[in-house]
Amino acid sequence: MSATEAPASPLAHRSATAAWLESRSRGGSPHGSVIFHAPSFAFQAPGGGENQLVQTGRELEALGIPIRLFSPWTDRLQHSRLLHLFGMSREGLELARVAKRRGTPVVLSPICWFEPRAIWALEERLWKKAGGLARWALRRAAPRLGGWRKELLDLADAVLPNSVAEGTQLRKLFAVESGKIDVVPNGVSAHFEEAEPDLFRSRHGDRDFVLYVGRIEPRKNTLGLIRAVKSLGIPIVVIGEATAASEEYALQCRREGGRLATWLGASDHHDPLLASAYAAAKVFALPSWFETPGLAALEAALTGCPLVLTPNGSTREYFGDMATYAHPNRPAGISQALQSCWHQRRNSRLSRFVASRYLWPVVSQRTAEIYDQITR
């Protein structure tokens, strides 16, 4: 909790999401509405978690449920139907405390994964590595131990992890009651299923390439992927932008990518050029340190693009044997997985499977049912 613009209208598709966010922040009334909240920094470098908020909101509105983005200046939580928090943050905790005092139900989509291997790999200093692992081990041994995340999970009336694996982890690390956990999978827009490669190829050339879509940051292991394609001499297209804390990392990715890498910046998920990129790609790769399961992976899967994914997180739960898995700390394994998928055809079975389970209308219907359960 990211990608390319059509040159003829660089703001057209980005503004679709921006317009929705703005209208739900300023228009309407909190009375009887579901109030959405994400950390204040969330949309500075939007990714899958932010898109989950937007798409859930749109689909719930299609079901007749009024949605409003929380405004600290004007909204009073006691006037709303419920508060839905996207992502775990201290801001969300403070708001949940107020909501509970006002008698307003709280729904939490944690969008989280706690991966000890990532702690060791991504922390730069040894003492931070050791400290992070010690805290994880303590939490694993004593899940009822206090802490702000524990308090937030306890305050929530319903916790909506994106997978059974995420829910299991929340129970093991924070002793979350099983009765308040309802798995609501991440979703994908149906328009990706109809994507064609022609638009992308007409603008960026008719050649095979590996596609990466997402933030450019160490957790996503973008540099590891760049090095893997470089070792194979395979072109890569990168659609995404760096977080503020990862600008130096992104520069290193660009330096090492050289002529093999094409950098297309960030894009809205409704941009037809993004969908066309998935349809044109030979392989989609996301060998991150963990994913839950990665919104871009779902989008690529809906086009039938062969997938190279991290095994860490909930990816196997979503894609099973229909993806190839590569550990982020094994460069040779990433290269081998890419090479294997490079010779695969597009996977219609994968596309049909994702379409049958993970389209946004299906996912959001489950969210609406949970709202009804806790507000009866």
Explain this structure.
By secondary structure, the protein is α/β, with parallel strands linked by helices. It has 2 domains: 31-187 and 359-374, Glycogen Phosphorylase B (Rossmann fold); 190-357, 3-Layer(aba) Sandwich (Rossmann fold). Helices cover 46% and strands 10% of the residues. It contains 16 helices and 11 strands. The protein has helices spanning 12-26, 48-62, 90-101, 116-122, 126-141, 148-155, 164-174, 198-204, 222-232, 247-257, 272-280, 295-302, 315-319, 331-342, 348-357, 360-374, and strands at residues 34-37, 67-69, 82-86, 106-109, 158-159, 210-213, 236-239, 261-263, 283-286, 307-309, 324-325. The strands form 2 sheets. A 6-stranded parallel β-sheet has the order 8-7-6-9-10-11, with helices on both faces. Helix 8 (198-204) crosses helix 11, helix 9 (222-232) runs parallel beside helix 10 (247-257) and helix 9 (222-232) crosses helix 14 (331-342). The radius of gyration is 20 Å and the shape is globular. It starts with 11 loop residues before the first helix and ends with a helix.
